[in-house]
Structure formats: structure tokens, C-alpha cells
Amino acid sequence: MKPVIHSLLDTDLYKFSMWQAMLHRHPTTQARYTFVCRNRSAYPLAALLDELNRELDHLCTLRFRADELAWLGGLRYIKSDFVDFLRIFQFQREFIRASVAHGQLTIEARGPQVHVMAFEIFVLAIVNELYFRRFDTAAALAEGRRRLRDKVARLQAVGREPPLRHPFEITDFGVRRRFSGDWQREVVATLAAEAPQVFKGTSNVMLARELGLVPIGTMAHEYLQTYQTLGVRLRDFQKAALEDWVQEYRGDLGIALTDVIGMDAFLADFDLYFAKLFDGLRHDSGDPIAWGEKALAHYARLRIDSHTKRLVFSDGLDIATALRIHRHFGDRAQLGFGIGTHLTNDMGLQPLNIVMKLREANGQPVAKISDTPGKALCDDATFLAYLRQVFGVRDAG
Predict the structure, then answer these.
(1) What's residue 396's pLDDT?
(2) EC number(s) per UniProt (predicted)?
(3) Which string of b and e fits 191-223 if b means at least 16 CB within 10 Å?
(4) How many C-beta neighbours within 10 Å does residue 104 have?
(5) 339-342 contacts: CB < 8 A, separation 24 or more?
(6) Please, what's the largest Cα pairwise distance for the chain?
(7) What pLDDT digit, counting tens, does each position of 151-165 carry?
(8) If 0-12 CB within 10 Å is exposed, 13-18 middle and 19+ buried, where does residue 138 land?
(9) Hey, CA dihedral for 261, 309, 316, 185, is it positive or negative?
(10) Are strands 30-37 and 104-112 parallel, antiparallel or unpaired?
(11) What is the 3-state secondary structure (H, E, C) of the chain?
(12) Number of neighbouring beta carbons within 10 Å of residue 172
């Protein structure tokens, strides 16, 4: 059977944008990432170990091709020295280890952050595809195509509804939890062909290149979390991360992630300077309506016209939820909706809720408090408590 990953572009754009920023500003950072499955699988993921190790062996043989690098270099925010780095980049097998402990699949990537941070999406895509290969593929694809037809019909109907000031637009964010790479391609190609007025791009860099779509993505939690360990005062880590991002991209990739410490703590740091420099904000935990109202109230206090800003929602969305949020905010701000599992793994099977998260950098713990119970992550209870105290966060959520 063919390998799951055959191109190093088959990952999210924000891996490249964070990668470039860290290479330029903190290239010596050491990091550790670990795999977590948040829900119960139909059979033990430990059964995938041998296949997973073969896939990781293969992943570590891949290199960026000249045509791929030429395309990447054509994105105006990708710097030539980063392309030169990618030209010689190859994953090192010694930096990643998969094993079974106490009956559970464990995966850990440890080493220089600029070498190990890119493992995440590939590992998650590999685990997903190996897992779902064990189910009835023909039945799953038949159900997936039926549901995809329903999605296309619903999206086509959006254009016939009374318009709001700002249009309804969705993006595919489904690499990490997809049923398979082939299925993601089919979904993205179908939506691009049949609902182009609504479907605006994909986070998958390979598919964006091959299908002529806009690649979408800016930053993830690991970027801001790393700054908890980089020698700045802990209270200032968000501001330091945002400042470095502004200096790196100078107006491009201007959507800031808000929930590493929670929305309230983020907005306390997101002053007039940052609010003017960033194009908008991304929601990834907590109630989306409450979050959006806080964002718009913050812009209003700063006397910034909310119609010039974009609110991006990306937390476990389906089309119905995205439309509900759009109806609430569509006359008040620009909006975007990144939909993942509901697009690329809606097959009538229970998806895996898997992540691979940064746990420490430079030998120090990092934490995400989040606005959703169950999404908080930290290996060190003492550090988590201290972080909550520093930012005045009462509920670890």
C-alpha cells in the first residue's frame, strides 16, 4: 500500500509561517512535542505501532522538490533564506519515537524546534489514515460522498439567501484529522468546483498548489507558547510573540490566535498598536458568540471600525454552526470559517480527536489554558498555577 505522505507540502500553511519565524528569531530553541488522543478509539491505537514506524521511516526519507520550493518561494511572505533552509531540510528519525506504554500509543518528537516542529501534522495525518484503513473503505466513501453532496447543496443555497454586509466564506482546515489524503483532495476539489462563491481556500499547502487555491493559515498555539520560555518576562510573552510576528511578516498573515491564556488575557495585551497592525483574530475555544462579542467590543473601545477587521472561527465547526455564527456577526465584521473534521472526515464513522502538542521548550514547561474545559494542556501543575496567577485567570478551564 502506498505511503500516507508523499510530499512535504502535504501539511498546514501555518507550519511554514511559524517555522520561518522561529528559524529567523529563535533557531536554537529545543522543544518536545507529544501525541494525545482525547477520545476513545474503536480499537487500540497501539495496534498501529509497526505500520506507524514504517511510515515515519518513509517520512524521514522525503525532501522538498525543486518545483515545490519554487512555488513556496513565490508566496510573497516566504523569504529566500527560508527556502534555502528547506532545500537542505530532511526529517531526522532520531528526533521522533513511537512506542507503546501501558497499552497506549505514545509518540514524542524531541530536538531542535526548527527540526521537530513540522512533524505534528504529518504524524496526525498518518495515524488517522492508518486507523481508518481498517474500516470498510467502500462503505465509508459512499457515505462520505452522500454527505458531501448535501454540503455542496447547502453551500450553493447560501448564495440564494438574503445577503449580509459581509459574505459567508469557508476554508478547509482538515489535514490533521482527515479520513485519508485522497479523500481530502476529493472534498477540496469538489467544493472548489461546485461552491466557489463560498469555498475560498485550504490550509493544505500541497492541495492549494495543485488545485490553484489560496493557502490559508497564520499561527497556532505552539508559536505563542514557545515565548513562555524565551527569556521575556512571563507576563509579556504574548506581546513579545505578536511583536516578532509583526516584524517578520510586516502586514502579511495578520490573523492573531487568542486563546493560549484565554480571550480576556489576550485582549489585555492586544492594545491599539496590535489591533491596528493585525487584520483580525482567530477563535479556537470557548463560546464563539461570546468570543466575537468581546472582540467587537474591544475594537469599539479602541475606536477601530470593525468592518475593517476579520474574525476567523475554527473550533470544531460544521456548516450549520458556521452559518449560525455568520448570521449573528455578518453585518458587523468580516468573517472566515475554517472547517476541518466535518469536511474531511464526515464518513459515518467516529473521528479520532487527536493532537500533537508542544509540551516544553528549552527544558521549561509550556501551557495552554484555553477557553474550553478539556483543552487545557500542561505537564507541570506548578507552572500552570503560576501562569494563571500572573494573568489573573481563575478558571483553568
Answers:
(1) 44
(2) 6.3.4.21
(3) bbebbeebbbbbbbbbbbbeeebebbbbbbbbb
(4) 13
(5) 339/170, 339/171, 339/172, 339/173, 339/174, 339/314, 340/172, 340/173, 340/174, 340/175, 340/176, 340/177, 340/314, 340/316, 341/174, 341/177, 341/316, 342/317, 342/318
(6) 58
(7) 999 999 997 888 999
(8) exposed
(9) negative
(10) antiparallel
(11) CCCCCCCCCCCEHHHHHHHHHHHHHCCCCEEEEEEEECCCCCCCHHHHHHHHHHHHHHHCCCCCCHHHHHHHHCCCCCCHHHHHHHHHCCCCHHHEEEEEECCEEEEEEEEEHHHHCCHHHHHHHHHHHHHHCCCCHHHHHHHHHHHHHHHHHHHHHHCCCCCCCCCCCEEECCCCCCCCHHHHHHHHHHHHHHCCCCEEEECEHHHHHHHCCCECCCCCHHHHHHHHHCCCCHHHHHHHHHHHHHHHHCCCCCEEECCCCCHHHHHHHCCHHHHHHCCEEEECCCCHHHHHHHHHHHHHHCCCCHHHCEEEECCCCCHHHHHHHHHHHCCCCEEEEEECHHHHCCCCCCCCCEEEEEEEECCEECCECCCCCCCCECCCHHHHHHHHHHHCCCCCC
(12) 26
Domains of the chain: 13-134+351-366 (3.20.140.10), 142-218+253-344 (3.20.140.10)
CA–CA dist 32, 106 (Å, integer): 13
Per-residue pLDDT reduced to its tens digit, 367-392? 999 887 666 778 899 999 999 999 99
238 neighbors 278 (Cβ within 8 angstroms): no
Which distant-in-sequence residues (6+ apart) come within 8 Å of 255 by Cβ? 218, 219, 278, 279, 280, 281, 282, 310, 312
Residues contacting 178, CB < 8 A, separation 6+ = 125, 128, 129, 184, 344, 345
In contact, 63 and 92? CB cutoff 8 Å: no
The grid coordinates of residue 36 equal 494525545
Cell of residue 94, nine digits: 532520531
Percent of the chain exceeding pLDDT 90 equals: 94
